[in-house]
């Protein structure tokens, strides 16, 4: 049934001026004028039956006009409201009811009535434009700031189909908003998502049903031999692509870097071939490449590299030898590789034990991180904590999980694909703008750029989360069709969002620096109209609350905190002791 059923007494005013997409209405009742606010929505009668025009209040004015008909020289007051027309609402279009279009098929006539769009009517209208039904698990993150009685809805399909960005300055409520969305995702029985958690702040959410927490193995986990059963993940070196392995093992500044890259490519392929031969995997042997996810013996590779590095070959003179072509040219690479293997911070790559060298181990990892919730299996939403991964290889490891997800989707039959969303917290650290990136970021950028461009075809969605949108890769950002922007105080960050707004809605961008904590400006395909929303508090808040300095400085501290911090630093692991 139609959602607009206004009565004459609800009229705000009448149209007195029409200029293409701008309308002026006169508000006769001063009390009604006081209720109006800039950026609120209104409904105007169209010249066509069963059709309305939706407008946005741009300016409120009160003018004094000299009236010659008055007996004395007096001025009469005129209450005016400037409205920008932004779309057309139809009670029916073909077989569809309640349809909104971001086009203007008509303009209102002079003396046409104008009504406020608020309360239940606003809620119903926003359901229409977000294509959310009144029942089931519709995606709703809060109420509208300018009308707290109206519920805000977002089109969940379009939010994830066309990628999204969640951003805001520190303390603006970015993590709170992310947690609220995750909380609603968890209500969907077959949800499939991975949250890249760089600081462990989303760990408290594991208490919610259908959410599970994992961490990349740290030094203490390796010592205690924890594994997937303990929700500790090892990401073995053999999962890295050839480019990633070269970036880790070869120093590009070395004059022998080209030779080293060539040798390691040849020997890694030989090592993978040897592994497949030992397992009698004849079919895979016919088609594998150096980038195929196949285990290989790193110890054997090191032995081979040392042999090549010290190789002597027959010389020109009898019984004399000379150095081989690569004698001494692999020394720096071998030393670099040995240091990586012995580095306990990188134990999750090189010290996973015998289990991770099994051929079926990849199946186990994929089912754990990418599988949906099934009987006796892991939850649908997986929080992966990267807080103990060294910062210099963080982009490689995060992008490896992303590549794993994309590759599995790519090689799944289209009829069997189940969509997966990747929530990329602190994205500027591993999806940086190319102007701020270095060589170690290039591999990560290639993977995320490809997912941004092609992910929709394979059911892979990106939700990019950052406090600095201006520092996030432009290619990835350009593929995001939905933006949830919290308070942004930096001019460069504000401009990123403002450029996304249509010209007739540009005024919305001016509120970015004055948004309250927990307020968001939602723009994009998931919400046809930019909306200012006050986000609900999530049931479980992430561990990212701002510390109250002044209050904390009035409370006595734990005298053992510094000693325990130093011990944790040395162990490269935070030990939480329950009291």
UniProtKB/TrEMBL annotation:
Record InterPro entries: HerA-like, HerA_central, P-loop_NTPase
Gene3D superfamilies: P-loop containing nucleotide triphosphate hydrolases (3.40.50.300)
Provenance organism: Sulfurimonas denitrificans (strain ATCC 33889 / DSM 1251)
Record-linked SUPFAM superfamilies: P-loop containing nucleoside triphosphate hydrolases
Ranges in a coiled coil: none
Entry protein name: Helicase HerA central domain-containing protein
Domain Helicase HerA central residues, every copy: 140-403
């Amino acid at each position: 049934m139609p959602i607009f059923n206004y009565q004459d007494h609800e009229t705000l005013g009448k149209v007195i001026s029409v200029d293409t997409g701008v309308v002026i209405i006169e508000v006769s009742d001063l009390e009604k004028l006081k209720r109006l606010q800039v950026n609120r929505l209104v409904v105007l009668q169209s010249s066509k039956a069963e059709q309305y025009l939706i407008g946005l209040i741009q300016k409120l004015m009160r003018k004094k006009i000299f009236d010659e008909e008055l007996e004395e020289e007096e001025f009469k007051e005129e209450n005016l409201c400037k409205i920008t027309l932004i779309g057309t609402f139809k009670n029916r279009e073909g077989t569809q009811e309640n349809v909104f279009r971001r086009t203007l098929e008509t303009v209102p006539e002079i003396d046409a009535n104008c009504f406020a769009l608020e309360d239940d009517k606003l809620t119903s209208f926003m359901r229409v434009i977000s294509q959310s039904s009144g029942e089931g698990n519709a995606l709703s993150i809060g109420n509208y700031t300018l009308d707290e009685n109206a519920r805000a809805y977002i089109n969940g399909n379009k939010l994830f189909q066309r990628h999204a960005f969640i951003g805001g300055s520190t303390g603006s409520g970015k993590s709170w908003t992310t947690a609220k969305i995750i909380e609603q995702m968890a209500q969907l029985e077959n949800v499939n998502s991975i949250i890249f958690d760089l600081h462990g702040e989303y760990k408290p959410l594991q208490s919610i049903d259908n959410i599970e927490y994992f961490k990349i193995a740290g030094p203490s986990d390796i010592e205690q031999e924890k594994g997937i059963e303990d929700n500790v993940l090892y990401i073995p070196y053999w999962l890295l692509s050839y480019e990633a392995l070269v970036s880790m093992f070869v120093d590009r500044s070395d004059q022998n870097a080209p030779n080293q890259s060539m040798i390691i490519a040849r020997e890694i392929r030989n090592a993978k071939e040897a592994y497949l031969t030992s397992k009698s995997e004849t079919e895979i042997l016919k088609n594998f490449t150096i980038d195929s996810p196949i285990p290989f013996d790193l110890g054997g590779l090191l032995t081979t590299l040392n042999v090549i590095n010290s190789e002597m070959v027959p010389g020109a003179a009898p019984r004399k030898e000379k150095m081989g072509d690569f004698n001494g040219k692999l020394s720096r690479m071998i030393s670099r590789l040995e240091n990586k293997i012995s580095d306990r911070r990188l134990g999750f790559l090189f010290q996973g034990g015998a289990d991770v060298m099994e051929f079926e181990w990849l199946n186990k990892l994929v089912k754990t991180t990418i599988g949906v919730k099934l009987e006796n299996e892991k939850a649908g939403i997986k929080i992966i904590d990267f807080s103990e991964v060294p910062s210099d290889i963080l982009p490689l490891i995060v992008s490896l999980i992303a590549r794993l997800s994309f590759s599995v989707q790519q090689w799944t039959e289209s009829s069997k694909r189940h969509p997966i969303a990747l929530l990329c917290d602190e994205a500027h650290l591993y999806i940086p703008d190319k102007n701020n990136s270095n060589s170690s970021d290039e591999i990560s950028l290639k993977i995320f750029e490809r997912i941004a461009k092609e992910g929709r075809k394979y059911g892979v969605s990106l939700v990019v989360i950052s406090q600095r949108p201006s520092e996030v890769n432009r290619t990835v950002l350009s593929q995001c069709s939905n933006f949830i922007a919290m308070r942004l105080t930096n001019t460069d960050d504000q401009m990123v969002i403002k450029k996304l707004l249509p010209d007739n809605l540009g005024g919305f961008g001016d509120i970015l620096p004055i948004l309250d904590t927990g307020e968001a400006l939602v723009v994009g395909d998931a919400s046809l109209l930019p909306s200012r929303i006050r986000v609900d508090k999530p049931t479980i808040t992430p561990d990212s609350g701002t510390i109250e300095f002044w209050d904390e400085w009035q409370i006595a501290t734990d005298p053992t905190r510094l000693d325990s911090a130093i011990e944790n630093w040395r162990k490269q692991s935070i030990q939480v002791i329950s009291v």
